[in-house]
Amino acid sequence: MDGMDIATLMEGLGARAREASAELAFAPPQAKEAALLAAAEAVEASLPQILEANARDMAFGRDKGLSDAMLDRLKLDASRVAGIVAGLRAVAAQEDPVGAVVAEWDMPSGLHIRRVRTPLGVIGVIYESRPNVTADAAALCLKSGNAVILRGGSESYHSSQALLACMVAGLKAAGLPEGAIQMVPTRDRAAVSEMLRMVKYIDVIVPRGGKGLVGLVQAEARVPVFAHLEGICHIYADGEADLDKARRVVLNAKTRRTGICGSAECLLIDRAFYARHGGVLIEDLLKAGVEVRTEGELLSIPGTIEAKADDFGREFLDMIIAARLVDGVDGAIAHIRRYGSQHTESILTENQATADRFFQRLDSAILMHNASTQFADGGEFGMGAEIGIATGKMHARGPVGAEQLTSFKYLVTGEGTIRG
Amino acid sequence: MDGMDIATLMEGLGARAREASAELAFAPPQAKEAALLAAAEAVEASLPQILEANARDMAFGRDKGLSDAMLDRLKLDASRVAGIVAGLRAVAAQEDPVGAVVAEWDMPSGLHIRRVRTPLGVIGVIYESRPNVTADAAALCLKSGNAVILRGGSESYHSSQALLACMVAGLKAAGLPEGAIQMVPTRDRAAVSEMLRMVKYIDVIVPRGGKGLVGLVQAEARVPVFAHLEGICHIYADGEADLDKARRVVLNAKTRRTGICGSAECLLIDRAFYARHGGVLIEDLLKAGVEVRTEGELLSIPGTIEAKADDFGREFLDMIIAARLVDGVDGAIAHIRRYGSQHTESILTENQATADRFFQRLDSAILMHNASTQFADGGEFGMGAEIGIATGKMHARGPVGAEQLTSFKYLVTGEGTIRG
């Protein structure tokens, strides 16, 4: 397709989404719940087709030379599909955020004011290889009364289409407009650029991906964005850290799962900690099979390798960590301000004032004290499913569930009340 | 100044604001309060200089041929300056939103999670003729821990500079960074375009103005925007409206003050109302001196004049109103969806189901039932000062006070807690 075709195609998708969103905005909670349950059933019933579609994607991915990590993210099997089904049912069971009265009060003028939740409108989700995002994101958008335009990675094209068909079947079964969940039907990258500029049809873009997508969004987005970008998470061992807690948490923060955005990518060690305990944190990581890239004194620890300049501020998503000595909590704060991505950082200390300083002077979506960065997850926050961890500060921040996909309006009632 | 100079100038302002915002983010509430009180004192003490600066602006405005309405907005006198002083003191007395714990809870993992308010960072405010916005906007940004870059209209340049000096004096007195409140020191329009693209230095733009500014923002903004744009407010008299309430509210909605964004610009009359009560609402408006622009049957009411096509969806800000017959609440909803600006609309009816339908199917920031649109005002909502009425849906909506100028972060504490 040439550029002209893409623009026309996207305009069609946009107009259809906008129309659906007007209807979805006041769809009864029962209809949305029914659609999600029917979609879950459709996914269950379509297991063979979904796995077949995924096999085509996997073959395509292997031919394309995708890394094992990428292929693993792309892969679906019966258990992962069961996870998708469970996810849909969990979102169906959640409370419907739309119409909820967030606050209400009376004014001396006689007016009664209610602030109630409303959908945002149309949400564009741009993601990469994981096909399950198709179902997860669509479910959260539907629950929150928003229409969604999905744009998955070209690697997961067939898997995502198979899941989309199930979601649309759910909409049909519940009598909701099919335009509520659409997917960009082309692998052409120009469609992403188009989405980023469709201010008339898309109210917010949720981009989930790595550096390439970040760059594109920063250069081109005209639509507001809930950035779910890199998770360059730091963990700082203060001079007054408890050694056992520090060892336990650092190891967990890096190694529990390396492919998630809450995985620690950089270990900052207070010189005071190092003077007292030596390289024990790094030795633990090395023993666990982590590659430790560092500099200066820490290079004297056998097994470490020298960090390149760009290893600080880098999201490895792998059994690799950058490590550096810093001067106390202020050194850690300065390093994180320079290299962090405002996702999640953790401090290990028994000194409450030091922890307070870390909490106050850093401005990441999530700050932790004596806890693993791996907890950066909607489920671990008690929010249920999430569409991502927002690293921006506008509207949504941290784990983004159905509630954060809503706006609000004021409903004001009087008795022929006029302003004096 | 040429384009290059403007870019360099704005980069300097931006960097200074960003630096100040890092410090402001954890400034003690007492310091911010002290700065606002000192600024109020400075405004009081500088009354002669402020009036002198304003006289220069007024002379400039008259030479430029500004309308009387524009000149009135530009004008400062002792009483209006006293209003600015009172406004600063009121914001000083407000609760500090930063650091407030919005929610907190425990998780089975042992984590304790707090959601606390944080400043957004750097706010750009672009406004037109009213010089008081300089003090009001700066005060709200400071209270919410944000640095601000102000860009007032060229007409109010000297008045705004005089008020800025007082605000900066307040910062100095309280030991806060002077970069926290800055004003673009040029009348060059290119500075506005620059602001709209300064994603590195400005976190959100608050544009307050008419069609010209709207167009510029829509075409150029790369920075997120809290649009405070047109208030094309509708008032709908349903067939089941109470006649007395309807007469009282319609007259107030249009005529109490015509220059504010909550003033009604379009009256929609249900055919059933018209069949029962005739043109009484329009006759009331005509008697009060309002020019009524209408069409069809309503033109038979003596004194009405024929509406042009663009009189619907137009913000008159004057003693002018557009009027049209519609078929019931659904006709009103369809008209408002097409012509409204999602600011404020009001329905007059005694039928609760009809009012509910209006509330549910429209998506304006403020919807009213049997109340005047003139109540669309932060003070009337009990929020104190406001930086404007946001007509967008992202982050802020309706009256934007200090609280809506904040974001939040999660503070999570454990006891060496790791994820299983």
UniProtKB/TrEMBL annotation, chains A, B:
Catalysed reaction, written as an equation? L-glutamate 5-semialdehyde + phosphate + NADP(+) = L-glutamyl 5-phosphate + NADPH + H(+)
Source domain of life is Bacteria
Q: Which Pfam families match?
A: Aldedh (PF00171)
Q: Which GO terms describe its cellular component?
A: cytoplasm
- Signal peptide start-end: none
A GO molecular function term, named singly, is:
glutamate-5-semialdehyde dehydrogenase activity
Instruction: Tell me, in one coarse class, where this protein mainly resides.
Output: cytoplasm
InterPro entries annotated for this entry? Ald_DH/histidinol_DH, Ald_DH_C, Ald_DH_N, Aldehyde_DH_dom, G-glutamylP_reductase_CS, Glu-5-SA_DH, GPR_dom
EC number in record: 1.2.1.41
Biological process, per Gene Ontology: L-proline biosynthetic process
Query: What family, per the record?
Result: Belongs to the gamma-glutamyl phosphate reductase family.
- Protein function: Catalyzes the NADPH-dependent reduction of L-glutamate 5-phosphate into L-glutamate 5-semialdehyde and phosphate. The product spontaneously undergoes cyclization to form 1-pyrroline-5-carboxylate.
State the NCBIfam families in the record: PRK00197.1, proA
What is the protein name for this chain?
Gamma-glutamyl phosphate reductase
- Please name the source species: Pararhodobacter aggregans
Query: Gene that codes for this?
Result: proA
